[in-house]
Task: inverse folding
């Protein structure tokens, strides 16, 4: 990492002009404050107070730690929580800097470190035989049946340190990383204050929905910054994502991308490869209050009950729609549309896909369009191995629009919910299957090459290790215990 840049008067005047902007790409070097740590630190405390990020502080040491904050504005299904460890450091006697460590924890096992489940040495469990040991978490089969005290004193101490109240959960996994994006966000807010005693600008420059009923919050947790994303998001632009269906990570990538863009001032429309018959259900849900009745109306569509669920109707996709709805409910300009035509096949289907997406893009020229599908449709090169004249959706859109970028999915090894032909090739076999990828770290990122590859992809979007997401209906979404079961679809409408 480059050494820190000294905060000169020229830089200060530039920062003042850009105060409050969040759409700048994060520099890859540290921000250096041209004031001693003792003068800088009170402004840091004020920033986190004004941003409604409660914290506890080790007074006099230049260290504070925020309380846990959930992604996407408190979504009940996010499952990812973040807090910040903020460290003030002396660069010289007259200069200082901040280190901000983002700590992420989740009930999701995707972040779990290998070998965590292994038990080494003497058991820590109290009052139980080795065979009856369990995690001690409510819901564990032996938690009630064994009648054993299965949590040790050390475990109890760990449990009591978990977030409390609405933030209470049993943590499966976690990680911590330095967050340069947050460091620069704080710097751009408080540097003008230090130089000219201007007010500390905390509020986000959000894209506000026209029908928003509330003002967007001061700070929305969008997860760690997706590297290289913001420079690709332009008004009227289209970003095509070619995915492997059935993972937890792609829907989370999309939700995080939308959150980070709308809190930077860019209105976003998300295009999903779901049947066009679901258009009204999806758009209505995203603009709804998210009640159990709203969930039922969304999940009653026959699509979610396809006899061959290929991953597009996964729990992660349903949860992503809830996350988009949550952002919309907080006043942000988020929309969703669907564009698949499953009754068609071959070139006719590609033509219909392109026409539907094109219609939405032309209807929203001031928006950025994030369109996800299987990885055949986004290609901008002509031809497939079995049809040299084939025109994928991406190629058709590229011929009609100025700004179209197609990205293929890159990922580390793991698992996905996949439908593939059985060994006899007679029928589709759907289930959790292992996938093999390449390890490029844990951070989400977007990378564009100097020129497209032979498939017409301009680059990749990377989502780290992948984990399978099962069909939403199998997980019980949309079926609250106090509501009548949704009507089963007829045979003629299955899979639409």
Result:
């Amino acid at each position: 990492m480059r050494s820190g840049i000294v905060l000169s008067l020229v830089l200060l005047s530039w920062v003042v002009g850009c105060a409050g902007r969040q759409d700048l790409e994060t520099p890859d070097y540290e921000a250096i404050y041209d004031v001693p740590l003792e003068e800088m630190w009170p402004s840091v405390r004020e920033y986190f107070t004004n941003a409604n990020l409660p914290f506890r502080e080790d007074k006099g040491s230049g260290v504070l730690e925020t309380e846990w904050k959930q992604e996407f504005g408190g979504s009940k299904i996010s499952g990812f929580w973040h807090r910040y460890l903020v460290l003030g450091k002396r660069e010289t006697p007259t200069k200082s800097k901040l280190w901000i460590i983002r700590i992420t924890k989740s009930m999701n096992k995707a972040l779990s470190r290998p070998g965590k489940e292994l038990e080494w040495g003497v058991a820590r469990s109290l009052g139980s035989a080795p065979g009856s040991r369990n995690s001690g978490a409510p819901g564990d089969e032996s938690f009630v049946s064994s009648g054993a005290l299965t949590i040790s004193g050390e475990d109890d101490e760990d449990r009591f340190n978990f977030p409390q109240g609405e933030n209470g959960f049993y943590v499966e996994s976690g990680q911590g990383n330095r967050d340069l994006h947050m460091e620069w966000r704080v710097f751009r807010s408080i540097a003008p204050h230090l130089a000219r005693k201007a007010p500390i600008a905390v509020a986000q420059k959000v894209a506000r929905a026209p029908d928003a009923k509330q003002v967007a919050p001061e700070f929305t947790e969008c997860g760690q910054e997706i590297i290289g994303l913001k420079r690709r998001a332009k008004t009227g632009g289209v970003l095509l994502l070619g995915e492997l269906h059935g993972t937890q990570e792609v829907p989370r990538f999309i939700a995080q991308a939308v959150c980070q863009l709308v809190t930077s001032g860019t209105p976003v429309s998300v295009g999903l490869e779901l049947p066009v018959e679901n258009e009204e259900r999806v758009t209505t849900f995203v603009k709804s209050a998210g009640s159990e009745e709203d969930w039922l109306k969304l999940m009653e569509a026959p699509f979610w009950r396809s006899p061959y669920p290929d991953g597009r109707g996964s729990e992660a996709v349903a949860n992503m729609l809830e996350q988009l709805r949550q952002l919309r409910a907080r006043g942000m300009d988020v929309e969703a549309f669907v564009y698949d035509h499953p009754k068609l096949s071959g070139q006719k289907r590609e033509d219909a896909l392109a026409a539907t997406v094109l219609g939405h893009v032309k209807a929203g020229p001031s928006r950025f369009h994030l369109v996800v599908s299987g990885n055949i449709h986004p290609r901008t090169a002509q031809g497939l191995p079995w049809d040299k004249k084939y025109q994928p959706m991406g190629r058709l859109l590229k011929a009609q629009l100025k700004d179209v970028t197609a990205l293929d999915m890159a990922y580390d090894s793991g698992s996905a919910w996949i439908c593939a032909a059985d060994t006899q090739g007679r029928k589709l076999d759907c289930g959790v299957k292992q996938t093999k990828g390449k390890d490029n770290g844990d951070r989400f990122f977007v990378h564009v090459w100097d020129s497209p590859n032979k498939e017409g992809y301009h680059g990749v979007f990377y989502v780290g290790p992948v984990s399978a997401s099962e069909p939403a209906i199998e997980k019980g979404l949309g079926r609250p215990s106090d509501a009548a079961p949704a009507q089963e679809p007829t045979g003629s409408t299955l899979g639409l």
Remarks:
- Confidence is low (pLDDT under 50) at residues 1-23, 110-155, 158-173, 478-496.
